[in-house]
Amino acid sequence: MIGKTKITAAAALLATVAIGATTVPAKADSVELGLLECVVEGGTGFIFGSSKDLSCEYTPANQNAATEAYFGVINKFGVDVGVTGATVIEWVVLAPTTDYEYTIGSLAGDYRGVSAEASAAAGAGVNVLVGGSDDTFSLQPVSVQAQEGVNVAVGIAELQLRSAAN
Question: Where does the secretion signal sit in this chain (predicted)?
Answer without folding.
Answer: 1-28
